[in-house]
Amino acid sequence: MIPEIGYFSLVLAMGLSLLLCIFPLWGAYTGNLRLMRTAPSLAVGQCLLVLFSFGVLIYITLTDDFTVAYVAHHSSSTLPWYYKVTSTWGGHEGAILLWLVMQASWTALVAMMSKSLPWVLRARVLGVLGFLGVGFMLYTLWMSSPFERLLPYYPVEGRDLNPLLQDPGMIIHPPLLYMGYVGLSVSFSFAIAALLTGKLDNTWAKWSRPWTMAAWGFLTLGITIGSWWAYAELGWGGWWFWDPVENASLMPWLVATALLHSLAITEKRGLFKSWTVLLAIAAFSLCLLGTFIVRSGIIVSVHAFATDPDRGLFILSFLALVVGGSLALYGLRVSQVYSEGRYKLVSREVGLWVNNIFLVVATLIVLLGTLLPMIHKELGLGSISIGVPFFNQMFAILIVPFAILMGMAPMLRWKQNKLPPLAKKWVGILVATIVITSAWLFSSFDEISTLTYLATALAVWICIATVVDLVEKVSVHPSTAQGLKRLGMSYWAMVLGHVGIAFVIASVTLTSAYSVERSVVMKKGEIATLNDYEYRFEGVNEIRGPNYGGHAGEVTVFKDGEYVTLLHAEKRLYDVGMQFMTEAAIDDGFFRDLYLALGESMGNGAWSLRIYHKPYVRWMWLGGILISLAGFIVLADKRYRRRKQTSVEHA
Amino acid sequence: MNKKFLGLVPLLIFVLLCVFLYQGLFGNPRELQTGRLGQTMPAFELPDLMDEQKRWTDQDLLGEVYLLNVWGTWCPTCIAELGYLTELREQGVRIIGLYYEQAYDPDFGDQFDINYLRTDVQQMLARAGDPYQFNILDLERTLALDLGVSGAPETFLVDKNGKIILHHTGDINPRVWRSKFAPAIQELQP
Lengths: 651, 190
Description:
heterodimer, B: two-stranded antiparallel sheet, 6 helices, cell membrane (chain A), cytochrome c-type biogenesis (chain A), Cyt_c_assembly (chain A), Cyt_c_biogenesis (chain A)
């Protein structure tokens, strides 16, 4: 009975989103304020029903109700309770329900926080969000319900959660990623509402910006955690594989990054309006496209998600309707949009414009690399495979001008600049970059390739340029404290975002160039050496977890005879699925990670082990966290808070 | 006029993309992937995984219908299908393994330890089931490239004259077997 209540609650929620889609949009079209006013309560009601439905799924998972197919396939009674909760989004149906939860929550948040918007715009934004809600709910109810029963024959035990997903990283990774994806639907709705209203002034950019920043922050954090999870859990020390599923999350991120910068121009200068709208549509469209790629089985990926052509067809139809509809609307309206305002070649406008070009080109590269093998085949040209080298090479080429620009652009002012003083500054920064990069690399490593040097220099360049700009902007004020206070959250966000990118560039470069690994077979007491570290094998113990057994290898690490750490690497065999999992032991450090994976028993008490030394690898996730912070601190910007106060006065 | 047309460009591109996505959804991507369908097995001479003295050539495989299963111990889906493949072997299906070593990439001059690999394979097969008559080791990936292998697991159905009848990407499970392999094998029976 309880699962049916969950299902029924979703049906009701879909009814409300259908109304949310119709009433406000119709009201906005006819100018009927009473219809428009229904939007917020419908949005909140829908959200409560979806949350209730999700609560039901968690409840039936916690109570091991294996009559429900989803629970039987993705959970088991021996699973610890927190992983039972995780299992509610460990499979396809539950993941889509989680998506709905996010969608409904964002919609309700928009409804509650948009009190100061004109009713026509507010109704349209919520109406569009309601339309998206209808699509996803229809999909869930029709072909992907997590409440389907396995009656009358049901298993007494579940199939357990995929051990790969039994990891803290996996608890938070999907929700964060979905927060990002769905958050971009808010930017999308603002763009569509603005197009419908026909008023593409900078107000909508101002409204859309904090929502976009927040969504982008979540997306960044989601991708970062996903990468960290792959590194910690897959046991072979990698962090990014250019898999179609990973690309599906990178594309919206790249476009959303372009969107943020473009929104800044539109808000501040009223320029690039139609371009910004297009980016907002594109960012969310790529989220939908990603969902299609992941869920349809159209592209072969190492990630084993539920794939099914029927589901694919539904998502494709929805994609065609949403994206096709908005691009048609865009095509009809964009010719009426005029941007006013002049600027010269050396100006912040041009800097941001070039930034947008780079990000869009990068997106197209990922899109082509992901879809080209399929298109190629459909054209009858035979199979091609586009792999990691293609992406690596293209991104290596793109990142050079992009990073140089990232250092220079923040110093540009709106409208125009005189070049000579800027050029002088840049030469100074270049000299500092060369000095610092040389000092850093030559003191840390024996051999340095030109490419490694260049790429590291890019990271250093961004950091120095950012700091120089910061110092200059502060020093024009009489006191440092006053100067710091004046900078504003958007500026701090930029500083964090750019420095974060610098960390990522440095990390990718250095860890790719200087990571070393060694496969060894050791008996108790034997010592292996790798990069000044000595690894003494202390033997293997049997381990027993709640739903797995296995072995744990202990290795003591010394450097120059001094004790560094004790590594504990596990090899687990999960009871239900009889799957093997490697739990790598990682001693993380600011400058290097020591990474150890336990292999097989080779007989006579000897074990195979794989030791990795990974310099600067942690900077990657540190960078990712800094970048996502950039997305979140903008929410604390005074401008947005002040808006809330005025909104109270209006009401 | 000009600007109006420009505004519709994104829509046109998107419509074109949708056409491909739609085709991709129904044109079974997993089957068309090889250009080798209907052709004979490429000529090769490669060592046995367990015994490097023993070498296999395309001629050794003629005379009987067999499955060539591309797999590796690093590949979870391959391990997952070992059990079902073993059942198939017990039913009399001849299965030959083409071992695909991922850790070793000839283009990067990686280090490679054959003894480690053998132990790894033996332990895996002892644990998950051993469907293979024997395993061919294609370290330089020449045969895999000739066959158009893009990953693992992939399975080829080859007739007794060495003609490639089917190329399947992904795991073999009872459903795939019933819908794809069994009918194809039936057709091969005289």
